[in-house]
UniProtKB/TrEMBL annotation:
<dbReference type="GO" id="GO:0031902">
    <property type="term" value="C:late endosome membrane"/>
</dbReference>
<dbReference type="InterPro" id="IPR011993">
    <property type="entry name" value="PH-like_dom_sf"/>
</dbReference>
<dbReference type="InterPro" id="IPR036388">
    <property type="entry name" value="WH-like_DNA-bd_sf"/>
</dbReference>
<dbReference type="GO" id="GO:0032266">
    <property type="term" value="F:phosphatidylinositol-3-phosphate binding"/>
</dbReference>
<keyword id="KW-0967">Endosome</keyword>
<dbReference type="Pfam" id="PF11605">
    <property type="entry name" value="Vps36_ESCRT-II"/>
</dbReference>
<feature type="domain" description="GLUE N-terminal">
    <location>
        <begin position="9"/>
        <end position="150"/>
    </location>
</feature>
<comment type="subunit">
    <text>Component of the endosomal sorting complex required for transport II (ESCRT-II).</text>
</comment>
<dbReference type="Pfam" id="PF04157">
    <property type="entry name" value="EAP30"/>
</dbReference>
<dbReference type="InterPro" id="IPR037855">
    <property type="entry name" value="Vps36"/>
</dbReference>
<keyword id="KW-0653">Protein transport</keyword>
<dbReference type="GO" id="GO:0000814">
    <property type="term" value="C:ESCRT II complex"/>
</dbReference>
<keyword id="KW-0963">Cytoplasm</keyword>
<dbReference type="GO" id="GO:0043130">
    <property type="term" value="F:ubiquitin binding"/>
</dbReference>
<dbReference type="InterPro" id="IPR040608">
    <property type="entry name" value="Snf8/Vps36"/>
</dbReference>
<keyword id="KW-0175">Coiled coil</keyword>
<dbReference type="GO" id="GO:0043328">
    <property type="term" value="P:protein transport to vacuole involved in ubiquitin-dependent protein catabolic process via the multivesicular body sorting pathway"/>
</dbReference>
């Protein structure tokens, strides 16, 4: 439906919009219609979620059946002041926009004609606040700055092929290129120094720092690809560690109560579902809720959330079609896991671990299982307790802590406890203990 009249917008797996480089969310409203009274064939976009960013007006269908549509702010020619009357106080509020469109009515920045569309705000929406944010975003014209080269410095190349530095000195050849690179890094170093002078400067430079970190990460990736044969394992490990650190620098546009309003927990839930995808892949499909809380808050920078907000965001996942879920073990430990995560696969791995000769003699601890499975000890303990509840393991409690053994009681005949069958776990255990003895 959006492709005929509006631009299509991409969504993440959790229904959050995919933002352009340098794009930041400014305001969120629910139950918003987009109509065009001048075009009878213009389809009504009914009761969707409207997200205002620095670059676009995004409309997301509430049922996600029609996807998402976008109105570039660059296509907006004029924003009409909303009229206030008794009718608008108790009815629907409207914000009218004059936008550029093509001859067939499609909204486009390069359109040759102009049409007027209306954003219809239903429910208890703060019209004045939205109108103010819309005018500020439109007047700032942030999309023009993002479309230019973010990595340019004060150096520039003239038509004759000479590089001209900030001092006006013309340079050519290799020396000109090196000088240009030097000036670029000096500008970057200056930005870093300014950012860390005080907290206010850091907050104002936050978006620039995240973009810089992404550029550095991409440069590391390209460097490791080009010179992969020349680097040793230690250097490769350092590059990987640096890439992981840069990935955790921050979220470019974190959902806040100020920008999302009444939709705060809903949008926070969707953003969290997108964020945990990579940590879950690295943790084997399951990660403790407290670890997610630390990682998510670190990525959000100064826009921290409370534990209650995190719990509420996770609880809303049941209403959305997202690939993750919140799980609570019998012990009370809460984790986030992929819906595709299978306990049976983990139990099969645990069984193979406890059937090894050393484990048959001495058992395994949660730390041993954590090393073998490549997960956190807390998660390993929960998996071992789950295996015990299903009858796969037996637990021994000592001053040294818990140790788990393969359950042999299922293979022992209660009428003849001394009978050793020629197959099964009991026979394997007897053979292992006899050989070691």
């Amino acid at each position: 439906m959006a492709g005929r009249w509006l631009l299509e917008a991409q969504l993440t797996g959790s229904g959050r919009p995919v933002l352009h480089p340098g794009e930041v969310e400014c305001y969120t409203l629910s139950s918003v219609d987009i109509i065009c009274e001048e075009k009878p064939n213009f389809p009504p976009f009914r009761s969707g979620v409207l997200i205002l960013t620095t670059h676009r007006i995004l409309w997301i269908d509430g049922t996600n059946k029609s996807g998402a549509a976008a109105i570039p702010l660059g296509a907006v020619n004029h924003i009409y002041s909303p009229s206030k009357s008794i009718k608008t106080m108790f009815g629907k509020s409207k914000v009218r926009l004059q936008v550029s469109a093509t001859a067939d009515g499609r909204i486009d920045e390069r359109g040759s004609t102009a049409i007027v569309i209306a954003l219809v705000l239903r429910g208890k929406s703060d019209l004045d606040s939205f109108y103010s944010r819309l005018r500020d975003a439109w007047s700032s014209r942030s999309w023009e700055a993002s479309s230019s080269n973010p990595g340019r410095s004060d150096s520039r190349e003239n038509s004759s092929g000479f590089f001209e530095g900030s001092s006006g000195v013309r340079m050519a050849g290799v020396s000109g290129i090196l000088r240009k690179e030097q000036e670029m890094w000096e500008s970057t170093d200056k930005s870093l120094q300014e950012a860390f002078q005080d907290l206010n400067a850091l907050m104002s430079k936050a978006k620039e720092m995240v973009m810089l970190a992404e550029k550095m990460r991409l440069k590391l990736l390209s460097g490791s690809t080009s010179f992969g044969n020349a680097t040793n394992d230690e250097e490769a490990g350092s590059n990987q560690e640096m890439q992981d650190w840069l990935l955790s620098v921050g979220i470019v546009s974190p959902v806040t109560k100020e920008s999302a309003g009444a939709l705060y927990h809903q949008q926070l839930s969707r953003q969290l579902a997108d964020f945990v995808r990579i940590p879950l892949e690295r943790a084997g499909g399951m990660i403790a809720l407290i670890d997610v809380y630390c990682l998510f808050n670190r990525a959000r920078g100064t826009e921290l959330i409370s534990p209650e907000d995190l719990l509420q965001a996770c609880a809303i996942w049941e209403k959305f079609d997202v690939p993750v879920m919140l799980r609570k073990f019998d012990s009370g430990v809460m984790v986030i896991q992929n819906k595709s995560h299978s306990d049976e696969e983990v139990l099969a791995k645990i069984k193979s671990i406890v059937l090894k000769s050393e484990a048959l003699k001495n058992g395994i601890s949660p730390s041993d299982a954590a090393i073998a499975l490549g997960i956190a000890p807390l998660m390993a303990k929960e998996h071992l307790l789950t295996a015990e509840s299903k009858g796969l393991l037996c637990r021994d409690i000592s001053p040294e802590g818990f140790r788990f053994y393969i359950n042999l009681f299922k293979d022992i005949d209660p009428n003849n406890i001394y009978l050793v069958k020629d197959h099964g776990n009991y026979q394997t255990w007897v053979s292992t203990v006899t050989v070691s003895g």
